């Protein structure tokens, strides 16, 4: 090759496609080495020959009847496939791109030739790649749709789970109510005789079952974002002292030593006392359950950096490092503790953290590992300069001998409640439907009506409205007794004309106060 060729000459001569130029009459003026090589000719052999010598008869006819007119009218002809005659007589299919340009006083046709077989192979490969990409896109789209459907199903299942927990906890309250009333009757009648220990065992286990049901109800409210807080200034020292007192039977049964350290000055937080008591009780219960009998539990309350900090520390089974991040998840229980834990559903810590978060606080956990105990720290923001009103504790007096109408479709619940009320000296009358209550009220003239809400004919709210419309019940104290205890339920009761709202199972001391 001539060493004096410029870079442009090299690009033209060694281009990946055939390039040539002809005059308007088809005389070949120049052609690159690539085209010569395709046709099996020596370099420069095409120069001075005529185009029609390279074209078979059919291609010549097509060129002069189709390509030339387009060059004359449009100055270009694109994507034309023809055959060229090779040196040995074989045919080479090519794809032509033609452009006519004027060079001084003459017209020059510039040819770009692509081997059709290579072009087709490239196009086929490109088509295959495109089809493969489309296929992959469709597969990914199907997977995305399946994932979306799975997420929708999981969300629906999670919602059904929350609704199931709420319904289950509510339904469990119904059998708990007559059990609580029956046990209260036994405590009143036999609390000081030889059966006191048996009755005490029943009482502790029933309270434990009631707490489990309460936890189920509360955790379902948290997961559905339906928990409502009844905020007021709360002295954490008094609250912790009360929770420790409530958990004393459990600590005694396990022979645990509980050391309590409370500050002399009050630590006041803005919170729902009932919910916060649940948190503290759950933390104490967790320590008691996961500490072998005869263990040591330290409970310390102190003020730290504008927060009330309650630390519950035990020398129990400890927590593996890998479980510290999941210990607050719903239904989580440590495997080593399943064999020794005294009951539980794995919801106590999840509920405790949820309530703490609703109060703007947090719960932290620390443990040096299995067998080395653990510490849970509850942190709640303090209220500066707030004084909690002291509650003056007074022993409940004996209820007045009132006429009480008990309305409940659960026969056992109605009869055990009536028995307990009669021990208070009350006169009772039972009804198991709303219509039955309306029929009995005018002659009985009840001074108190204890009404279930879920009645078979119409609900307790409507019954309360109708009783208020009777002259015989104009001054009757109406008390709602229901398994639903949210603020919304209390408001419904107030709107219907109830004077008080009690959640099943009914606390005998609260009822005693209402009857005084």
TrEMBL record:
Reaction(s) the record says it catalyses: ATP + protein L-histidine = ADP + protein N-phospho-L-histidine
Top class in the EC scheme: transferase
UniProt KW rRNA processing keyword: no
Record InterPro entries: CheY-like_superfamily, HATPase_C_sf, HATPase_dom, His_kinase_dom, HisK_dim/P_dom, HisK_dim/P_sf, PAS, PAS-like_dom_sf
Sequence ranges assigned to domain Histidine kinase in this UniProt record: 167-384
Domain of life assignment: Bacteria
Signal peptide start-end: none
Membrane topology recorded in Swiss-Prot or TrEMBL: Multi-pass membrane protein
Name the UniProt record assigns to this protein: histidine kinase
